[in-house]
Design a protein that fits this description.
There is one protein chain. 16% of the residues lie in helices and 40% in strands. By secondary structure, it is an alpha+beta fold. It folds into 2 domains: 2-122 and 270-280, Diaminopimelate Epimerase, Chain A, domain 1, CATH 3.10.310.10; 129-263, Diaminopimelate Epimerase, Chain A, domain 1 (Roll), CATH 3.10.310.10. It is globular. It starts with a strand and ends with a strand.
């Protein structure tokens, strides 16, 4: 099987994009996606994204396999890359073009902007503990400034879902966090029935934070769009951040706004093509 692909990256969070518009199921299996994502024996990526036909009135459907073969509900950097990929497939659209993309986290609406930027309406954050899900708070309560024991240390964490689950903790220095050592301990902690993405946040100013992330199913990545959104929400809830905030990640910066007008999170950041090619499976 010869597979045509396009490689995109959003702040270094990189994906293999596949034109899957002719059928409703992914062109490759989760096991094949693991091979494609391998950086030594495959193309190399944090995940494989499939652009499928739309459902429930949407323009397209996005599905994604992480580099470990698991399937997340959504991916913030990934959906910006998919918007640019759709623009490429359609032959180029004007600035302001908006797509309605069906995901496992609901319908997400990215809008094409100038200079490879994409602004995404990420919808409303989910704060109820049972919906995140986490057992750190009562099912109908919010998990804000809860204590979590990880790696023989007590961490103060706040949990937010952007359609996928996030655990956010504020630290004095993100560079001092032994992410490679403790990231998987957070991900697989028993307090998170569906595992968790974990963000470590250093507040530079209320409108500027630094973030490092351990992504569920992918490990350390250079950026996480849903994580940046969840972190700003957690920052507002804990009094650490403004509603408009720049989030600096190892791969670059995202602009995040938690709107008081409609309670939606808006994320703006780049998505750029890396290369195109074909491979044999």
């Amino acid at each position: 099987m010869v597979l045509e692909f396009t490689k995109y990256q959003g702040l270094g969070n990189d994906f293999i994009l596949l034109d899957n518009r002719q059928q409703g199921e992914p062109l490759v299996t989760a096991e094949q996606a693991v091979i494609l994502c391998d950086r030594h024996f495959g193309i190399g990526a944090d995940g494989v994204i499939f652009a499928l036909p739309g459902t429930d009135g949407s323009d397209y459907t996005m599905r994604i396999y992480n580099s470990d073969g698991s399937e997340p509900e959504m991916c913030g950097n990934g959906i910006r890359c998919m918007a640019r990929f759709l623009d490429q497939l359609e032959g180029g659209n004007p600035e302001g073009k908006t797509y309605a993309i069906h995901t496992l986290a609901g319908t997400i609406r990215p809008r094409l902007e100038a200079k490879n930027q994409v602004r995404v309406d990420m919808g409303e954050p989910i704060l109820m503990a049972s919906d995140i899900p986490t057992t750190l708070a009562d099912a109908a309560g919010k998990s804000i400034n809860q204590t979590l024991e990880v790696a023989s240390k007590s961490w103060t964490v706040t949990c937010v879902s952007m359609g996928n689950p996030h655990c956010i903790t504020f630290v004095d220095d993100v560079t001092a966090i032994p992410l490679a050592t403790i990231g998987s301990d957070f991900e697989t902690h028993s307090a998170f029935p569906q595992k968790i993405n974990t963000e470590f946040i250093e507040v530079v100013r209320p409108d500027y934070i630094k973030m490092r992330v351990w992504e569920r199913g992918a490990g350390i990545t250079l950026a996480c769009g849903t994580g940046a959104c969840a972190s700003v929400v957690a920052g507002v809830l804990t009094g650490n951040c403004d509603r408009r905030c720049t989030v600096e990640l190892p791969g670059g910066c995202l602009e995040i706004e938690w709107s008081e007008a409609d309670n939606h999170i808006y994320m703006t950041g780049p998505a750029e093509i890396s290369f195109q090619g074909s491979t044999i499976l």
